[in-house]
Amino acid sequence: ENGGNGALVQRLVDGGPAASSGIAPGDVITAVDNVPINGPTAMTDVLVPHHPGDVITLHWHSGGGDRSAPVTLGDGPPA
After folding, report:
1. Cα dihedral across residues 14, 20, 25, 28: positive or negative
2. Which of 15, 45, 47, 57 has the fewest Cβ atoms nearer than 10 Å?
């Protein structure tokens, strides 16, 4: 968690949709489809109605500033 200001990215699936969009560990996801994210629980809540193949727009803050990109959701990581 990032003090209520987004969801901190801790790890990514190599070659997965988020990694391919330019998100990296240490970045902070601040919104999904313009819905503010105030922590990991909010991120989960926003993603629940979506399915693999849906396209969402992620907004995040990285060391290079604020960015956004469309991301096509994939299957979740293996359990």
Report:
1. negative
2. 15
Helices (H), the chain: 17-21, 40-47
DSSP code of residue 34: T
Q: 73 exposed, middle or buried (CB, 10 Å; 0-12, 13-18, 19+)?
A: middle
Phi and psi, residue 62, nearest 5°: -125, 180
Name the phi and psi angles at 42, rounded to 5: -65, -35
- Residue 29, Cβ density class (10 Å: 0-12 exposed, 13-18 middle, ≥19 buried): buried
Tens of pLDDT, residues 36-57:
999 778 888 998 899 999 999 9
Nearest to 9 by CA among 45, 60, 54, 51: 60
